[in-house]
Amino acid sequence: MPLIRSWVRPANDPEGSFPLNNLPCGVFSTPGTAPRCGVAIGDSILDVAAMEAAGLLPLAERPVLGEGAWNPFMALGPAAWERLRVLLYGHLAEGAVTAGVVAPFLCGMAAARLHLPFRVAGYTDFYAGRHHAMNVGTMLRGPENALPPNWDHMPIGYNGRASSVVVSGTPVRRPWGQIRPEGAATPLFAPSRRFDLELELGAVVGVPSSGPVSVARAEAMIFGYVLLNDWSARDIQAWEYQPLGPFNAKATATTISPWIVPAAALAPFRVPGPERAVPLLPYLAEPHPMTLDIALEVALAPAGQDETVIARTSARNLWYSFPQQLCHHSTAGAPMQTGDLLGSGTISGPGRGERGSLLELAWGGREPLDLPGGQRRSFLEDGDTVSLRGHARAGGVRIGLGACTGTILPAAEEPFGGGQ
Amino acid sequence: MPLIRSWVRPANDPEGSFPLNNLPCGVFSTPGTAPRCGVAIGDSILDVAAMEAAGLLPLAERPVLGEGAWNPFMALGPAAWERLRVLLYGHLAEGAVTAGVVAPFLCGMAAARLHLPFRVAGYTDFYAGRHHAMNVGTMLRGPENALPPNWDHMPIGYNGRASSVVVSGTPVRRPWGQIRPEGAATPLFAPSRRFDLELELGAVVGVPSSGPVSVARAEAMIFGYVLLNDWSARDIQAWEYQPLGPFNAKATATTISPWIVPAAALAPFRVPGPERAVPLLPYLAEPHPMTLDIALEVALAPAGQDETVIARTSARNLWYSFPQQLCHHSTAGAPMQTGDLLGSGTISGPGRGERGSLLELAWGGREPLDLPGGQRRSFLEDGDTVSLRGHARAGGVRIGLGACTGTILPAAEEPFGGGQ
User: Fold this and answer.
1) Does residue B328 carry a pLDDT above 50?
2) Which of B189, B252, B419 is closest, CB to CB, to A217?
3) Global ipTM
């Protein structure tokens, strides 16, 4: 796969994240300016909102990039998405005649603040990682009964809380909640002691729908992908989740990376899905490979210390692709909306160092993780910073997903202090 | 409780739904006009959007009633909500000096089409009806283990799909989904055969929050209440719901009544909650009674036939009040938003005729319900029309909640027909 070279020189760095092949979509601001749409290129952000306003990016009859969220553009659909890429190739490729006109619209990434790149309409979290489901199921029910009987037939999912999705860099305050200590008859109301991370990918729906959509159509509805950390309070979850599923345990925050990497940039990295012993129902069949070959890692840094990579794995470990997830989501007729976010569920690989949560890495606290400096972790401690990273690579092209980072703040002393 | 008499005579009917004490908020349109905010009074709708535009309802610096959803007004908070009521009392009460000015803003209800009264930001469904939880739990696990151990300690809830909330009158198409027939090893993809209704109340959040809120503060955040039918595909639910809860089974549609009855109109009908054998954790304590004394009923009409009331019960059967639900929802830090909708969960009473779902009324299909004309029902059939109704009454005042109605359409022949 060839690198498309750019006159923005850092974009040609083979170890960089944002070559011209990528063109991920974010929302940025600089001191004194309003958040607006930008596209990452090398170490810069191209102010596509300003370019559109200047007539350099004719995308639609009305401006679609000026309002601080990619939703209006995403709603235009795949033809417009492709048009933006083609226009930007023309402006940014090596030798572009418009280089001199476009250069003033570049902003150094270091000077910019990044915001949530889209308004999250709905947030759904799936459970599509087989090793994760096996690990968690084994801890709870033993290896023979690890997977529930429906697991091999459908991408299990649940609705999350869209209002709690935040952009990378937002601190995450340890939640309070109902917790029943082991052996106790009744619960306490206390700060979570088993607060965890979850390594996930997220798909961003661009095109809305109003009824069941096929796997093929679902793929064409997905605008792009982000990294996603679905922070999870395991002790709150253990007590609350029967019979209606996770609720407050997942409601504190879900952090996403600030750059939506377009589906078009990741299309070359689609690979066949897993070999299945249990055949899928026909409606979930993929017309072509849809699993994403993206390398993923999790790093953890205790307060004031260097980070350690605690897990490395691949999105190839997902048992159900995002188009399969989205198709299944739509089967009962639920409308899908521009700005819907689908989390994959935690992505773990088969090896111990490939597990996408502390619950798995430290096996429920039974095998704490040793970090440099004498630190040990079963779950997250106050001050810990978690960073998810991901990239796809082929030939000389590296498509980076940016970073998805959050630091744990201590629990509030009095949770109802604010305006009771 | 005294009736506030109005010069809009039908509003004084003691058996009517919309006296001046009520003033419920809807969105309406007439042929050729755009949806806009209206308030029901007697058999008419007061075009409060037009009144605001004409300067007769000064509520905020900018117009808040013109855009076809009550969200901008709801976000203003309780002082503005009270101001609107006071202004409308002034305009609509018997002897109002502005009666002549206001009369042209009345529109006959029969001539209007009603729309969803607010943009649903998030939709959460609780499980706060104890008799319902007991009935369902008894069917699944026997009476000794009917309630999960957390049930007496917290209002259990799960996130629903906001995009599938529709207004009363919208037809509901029987969904397809994965279903595992009894005794089968593998699932089918087929139309649901156990499609059901759920009688619920819904609370509409007006004031947003950004961290945990107390029960007292939660009560002040609630703008008003609607009737809510959480259509449920029991066969899809039975197969999909472990371990992450209901998903597609609840995603086809959730129907709400078109009129948001203001919390202020229902405040006189707050009564003490249930006597509890198990004490609640202090954070869930109510500073004053918050259970709503609202009479509820469910009517079912087979295609072309008269309806039969199949259940009568009361919202007093809710074990957790809406402020308790909202407080619990917020404890882990999830932001609450203007337009969040909280469903109570199915409301059933102790008697057989007080059950708020067909699952309970026909006891899982074991005791089918006999209707006039030789019809029997275990679950809904195509062409059935379900209507929920509710009212609170004291002295000469009857506060009606309007109707929450939906007719079942047959399943699509080919669910992926639309644009595969």
Assistant:
1) yes
2) B419
3) 0.97
